[in-house]
Amino acid sequence: MDIFEKIYCDERLARARDAKERGLYPYFVPLDGTEGTEVMVEGRSVLMIGSNNYLGLTTHPRVREAAKQAVDEYGTSCTGSRYLNGTLKLHQQLEARLAAFVGKEAALVFSTGMQANLGAISALVGPGDYVVMDKDNHASIVDGVRLSQGTMKRFRHNDVRHLERVLDGLPENAGKLVVVDGVFSMGGDIAPLDQIAPICKRYGARLYVDDAHSLGVLGGARGTAAHFGMQDDVDLVMGTFSKSFASIGGFIAGDADVLSYIQHHARSLIFSASLPAPNVMAVMVALEIMETEPEHVQRLWENGNYMLNCLNEMGFNTGPTQTPIIPIIIGQDGPTFLTWKLLFERGLYTNPVVTPAVPPGQSMLRTSYMATHTRAQLDHALSILATTGRQLGLIPG
Questions:
Q1: 347 in the Ramachandran plot: left (φ > 0), alpha (ψ -120 to 50) or beta?
Q2: Which residue from 188, 343, 362, 370 has the least number of CB within 10 angstroms?
Q3: What is this structure's pTM?
Q4: Contact yes or no for 133/156 (Cβ under 8 A)
């Protein structure tokens, strides 16, 4: 059989071709430029309510200036892995600051958040070990477990009773790692660490929290464990730089011995070029802004709460969100694509999420808000959403 044969009958590609032919394909939209809250698409300005730039720091003058200076001083690449010639003092300085920020002994910086999860989980989990994970966890966690030699078990989303039943059914002497997203990137809801952590202790399981969408958002920007006042109850914290930290990359934080083990076993760290200095410096300054200027987080929550209240008053289904990530649940794939198209044509950028990324009947538009959105911009977005929602029967006329 020709290995390419599956390409010609792939259902996902067929759906993509059909959507393109009907002008409803919403992915890989090329942007001409971005100023954070607005993007340029084919020469026109579109209001962005689909970004992970929660604190709006990608356009902060200090962040931009730090990256520019790092280019002048260090160049554009380290041209080697952390393991060999790619570790700068800047990496170690950032790791020390990140560890302190999330209340851990040590941290380790990876070149992407995806690599952080792939490397850490596959390094820690071996034959006979179990990873017990929320079924809505990010794909990078799933792939990290697949790369390991352990066994994956899932529990129903945020269902702590089901988590306990799964743990109770595992061999008592097996190694166990419970992995959850702190904030779930589609629904915007928060993992109940105050209930999860005691269960992990009862069954001798270690707790790993993916804080990609929590850092800069929860716990005064310090993440989900800080939100619950439980930094000492979480064993490992993972974070990314491509959201609130205005850069790209990721990190793992925890006990120093555990981090040293990951450092010497994580293939995605050892065999990837290290994070370039301009990206490191952008994170460093973004971190400093989070630590010293709490008004950014405050504005983020003011904007998120304002949008959530207004959308609910209009009659939109916003699901279980507890954060400035606000889904607009539409139900079926076709109406979701149509809604996205009308909003986009009217100057509003959202993210359509359809099966299999969400369960059947739960297709949605993922919206998310920034500290830098103005009230006028939010009101403009609400006006477009209201007009479109009434036209399509998503909300009362």
A1: left
A2: 362
A3: 0.95
A4: no
